[in-house]
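[Q] Does anyone have a clean structure-token version of this?
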Amino acid sequence: MRVLLHYDMDHDEPGLDIVSCSEQDDTRFAELLPDTEVIWHVLRPLTGADMDRAPKLRLIQKLGTGVNTIDLDAAEERGIAVANMPGRNAQAVAETSLLLMLAALRRVVPFDARTRRGEGWPADRALVGGELAGRTVGLLGGGEIATLLRGMLEAIGARVLFTSRRPRPDDPAWRNLNDLLRSSEIISIHVPLTDETRHLLNAERLALLPNGAIVVNTARGPVIDEKALTTALQTQHLSGAGLDVFETEPVNTANPLLALENVVVMPHVAWLTHETWARYFAVATENCHRLTRGDPLLHRVR
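[A] Here you go.
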């Protein structure tokens, strides 16, 4: 079975013919598509036109959870199965969310720059950092990543609240979205990108956050209205942000968020650990074998 790993790395699995291709190399990608039976997909959007170049394609296997980068309707029209692997990157993303909270609170970006410039001890009182213990952290989402992160935060001593699509009246930490925002000194996003969640955090909702709040996003960039976020940071309504994702990726170097000292950024790599890759490949390989045997796929989306 010919498998196209759409990422710039090599990987071997017994019984599978795996070829790799960088997500930035569209020429090689197009050349490999005609013989491809399975695509192991990461982030570069997959369109109906891509699928038309792959007449043998039987399965698009998302390496991760979010399938917003796959044209699901086009896949269904062509009889191509789509599967994902929920939860396999949860530990890495939860840890990275915690990392970004701490980095924003402790002013890691300006401290790093000043240290590299040899400026020594800071005289700027605005650079005094804060601690997570005793703060209220709101989690936008109630899935596995949010659940893991909640445990980490509570162990540190933070008060954790959360919201989810379905109310959970049995959990005293549950709040509706607006109440969650009003109560949270730090808000961390853990929801998929859908029509309902696009720009969920717009100017009006960001204004509900207390003055000096911090926003962390390791989910999908368009969940936040970036223009509204930039304004909230520039006017100091928000004291900081930790962002692993952006509305346009790769993020443009002209994006004004990148010029702000109170923003910590990463290039959509919250999931990227050796342990995550091992879990990804285990599920992806199993689904290839299931496809060969005609067995039901794990975590089929379409």
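[Q] Thanks! Anything notable?
[A] The first helix runs from residue 26 to 32.
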